[in-house]
Amino acid sequence: MKITRIEAIPFAIPYVKTLKFASGEVHTADHVLVRVHTEDGLVGTAEAPPRPYTYGETQQSIVTVIDTIFAPQVIGHSALEREQIQAILHRTIGNPTAKAALDMAIWDVIGQALDVSVSQLLGGWTDRMRVSHMLGFDTPEQMVTEAQAIHERYGIATFKVKVGRRPVTLDVDVVAALREHFGETVELYVDGNRGWTPSESADALRRMADLGLTLAEELCPADDILGRRWLVGQCPVPFVADESATNPGEVTRELLGGSATAVSIKTARTGFTVSQRILGQAEGLGVEVVMGNQIDGQVGTLCSVAFGAAHQSTSRRAGELSNFLDMKDDLLAEPLQISDGTLSVRRGAGLGLQIDEDKLTHYRQDT
Ligand code: MUC
Ligand code: MG
């Protein structure tokens, strides 16, 4: 299982509809496909999504850090030396999605070599997850129409509503319209991507108090340290740390500092290895987790569901696994299918994914 070559391939696939949220917007999936080759002819695959407004990475920075810093040090190691490889990666600060994609591609290699699925290797709890769909900023009418279409077509009954606009009533009206439209038949929760101040967040929570929200995520910046603690202290539902808790140290700081009471796990930023460590922290501290989405394509989504379905506590809540529906196309030879509101783990060795090489040739940006 000696690693002989690592590819970082930039590609760009347009979105059908721009996804807008408080910290940014996405209109093209300008991701990086990472491939890890071994001397036995195995190829592990994962993808890294650049999110400059969250982690500072760009498509170019991901390719560069992999090509010039990570690949030269990782090549020559066995895929089984994951701890050695983690040590190499963590010698460089930041670059979470580049590190995560490498880690997940290496797990894909290990699964293929052992002829077992990565999800089973990780824990094998179940073979599918319920799906939560993310609704980006729009008018209440448009967001209800989108939610209804997604509900009808895919059976999805959990929606994460992007909030964080000013005045807060813009978003409160959306949540009220969704509740009015669906009644109690759907689960609703909100994600502010740090858009509000602590007092605006508290005001919005008060206004939404009767709307049956189940979670509130990153309503205000974690750097508003005392304000955030004050807010979390009065939040009636678990307050989820997402971009404020991107590694085990930050998870500890946010939870023990009283700035969050739940954690979003995103394989796109912590891979499988570090995501398992974060899951262990959450379980040990007794807080709930949600499988989040880094606005992944289908390759990244397959990684998320492989991890989420592998453990009891990550599969309890619906996972955010549907952002790829907004893309015009994707790279998988066999596209993902959401039905009855669930997404299944791929059977087969490793991550069970195969890239459509013609599509990759079409969408890659480096030729
Ligand atoms: C989310 O849960 O926040 C948007 C920004 C980001 O970092 O992730 C996405 C989704
Ligand atoms: Mg979030």
Record the SSE blueprint.
Elements: E1 3-10, E2 13-21, E3 24-29, E4 32-38, E5 43-48, H1 52-55, H2 59-74, H3 82-90, H4 96-114, H5 118-122, E6 128-135, H6 140-154, E7 158-162, H7 169-182, E8 187-191, H8 198-207, E9 213-217, H9 225-234, E10 239-241, H10 248-256, E11 262-265, H11 267-270, H12 273-285, E12 288-291, H13 298-310, E13 319-320, E14 338-339, E15 342-344, H14 357-363
Parallel strand pairs: 6-7, 6-13, 7-8, 8-9, 9-10, 10-11, 11-12
Antiparallel strand pairs: 1-4, 2-3, 4-5, 6-15, 14-15
Helix pairs in contact: 2-4, 6-7, 8-9
Features:
367 residues; alpha/beta; Enolase-like, domain 1; TIM Barrel; 2 domains; 3-stranded antiparallel β-sheet; 15 strands; 40% helix; globular; binds [(2S)-5-oxo-2,5-dihydrofuran-2-yl]acetic acid; binds magnesium ion; magnesium ion binding; Mandelate_racemase_C; isomerase; magnesium; Enolase-like_C_sf
